[in-house]
Design brief:
Elements (H helix, E strand, L loop, with lengths): L3 E3 L5 E3 L3 E2 L7 H13 L3 E3 L7 H11 L7 E6 L6 H12 L6 E4 L10 H9 L6 E4 L3 H9 L7 E5 L7 H9 L3 E5 L11 H10 L3 H11 L3 E2 L6 H8 L8 H8 L20
Bound molecules: NADP nicotinamide-adenine-dinucleotide phosphate (NAP).
The site of NADP nicotinamide-adenine-dinucleotide phosphate has 27 residues, from helix 9.
Length: 271
């Protein structure tokens, strides 16, 4: 299968990466990123809000993998004022001269408020790509229409249970790469009986089945694990295919009516 998607700046973003939300700064994050890079992952997803950029940076530096072979994402904390000033701090922590993708973590204060600062980070060469996260279709359109450089990616919660298909379609139509987070429902979908049944039937694990579903939907995906054996297990999702019946069984789990929203209004922690 295709292992990268093309951003509008021409860069290739891997379809499968490691997310490090809730992985403590220090040896645990370093070990997770090290295991991922050894396994073959080339996309690491962190954020200013995660507090572990320094460990991500150390693991990358010590890995021996050339920096230009790694796609590194961090996210602007919208509770802070200036995306340009904040990326300078991130780069110091990450010990690198640029990130490959810098996302507005959520649309606090409105869709467009952070964007001029994101464009400034891009113009300064500190962020090769810029994008958004937790933006609905309407918010994505609003920021695209008011920008010099349109968002290149939108990262939002996505899994068979939260199949924001209308949002994926809107991203693709606008030339914005869709990226899914919480593909395992932060762990909660792994014990679902329908997922377990499909895993048994296909000879895969529940995590592999869930990750593979997102990949076959054309969405880049960033499962998190701080367990090296699971990091390896999840990477196998690149190497098998779910047939149409299996995809349909997973499609049937959607509880969002294929929403174009990035979040239910009750889940918008920023408003
Ligand atoms: N932009 C945003 O607002 C936003 C929000 C949420 C998440 N994200 C990004 O998306 C990433 C992933 O989402 P997520 O952290 O919510 O969770 P997730 O990837 O859906 O699930 C992670 C959980 O599943 C467990 N797990 C992972 N692989 C497993 C396996 N093979 N077998 C059994 N358990 C497994 C992990 O446990 P262990 O770690 O103990 O192995 C952890 O408890 C985040 O880390 C972050 O980078 C972004």
């Amino acid at each position: 299968m295709q292992t990268t998607l093309k951003l509008s700046n021409g860069a290739e973003i891997p379809v499968l990466g490691l997310g490090v939300w809730q992985v403590p700064d220090g040896p645990i994050t370093e070990a997770a990123v090290t295991a991922a890079l050894e396994t073959g992952y080339r996309l690491i997803d962190t954020a200013q809000a995660y507090g572990n950029e320094a460990s991500v940076g150390r693991a990358i530096r010590n890995s021996g993998v050339p920096r230009e072979e790694i796609f590194l994402t961090t996210k602007f904390h919208p509770g802070r004022r200036d995306p340009l000033a904040e990326i300078e701090k991130s780069l110091e922590l990450l010990d690198t001269e640029y990130v490959d993708l810098y996302l507005v973590h959520w649309p606090q204060g409105g869709a467009t408020v952070a964007w001029p600062g994101m464009e400034a980070a891009h113009a300064a060469g500190l962020a090769k790509g810029i994008g958004v996260s937790n933006f609905s279709t309407a918010e994505l359109t609003e920021v695209s229409e008011s920008s010099q450089v349109a968002p290149m990616a939108n990262q939002f919660q996505y899994s068979p249970f939260v199949d924001r298909r209308s949002l994926v379609e809107a991203c693709v139509a606008a030339g914005v790469v869709p990226q899914g987070y919480s593909p395992l429902g932060t762990g909660e979908h792994l014990d679902d009986p329908a997922v377990a049944k499909l895993a048994t039937a296909t000879g895969r694990t529940p995590a592999q089945v869930l990750i593979r579903w997102s990949l076959q939907r054309g969405v880049s995906v960033i499962p998190k694990s701080s367990t090296p054996s699971r990091i390896k297990e999840n990477f196998v999702a690149l190497d098998f295919e779910l047939d149409d019946d299996s995809m349909a069984a997973l499609d049937a789990l959607d509880a969002t009516s294929h929403t174009a929203e990035a979040k239910a209004s009750s889940q918008k922690w920023w408003s």
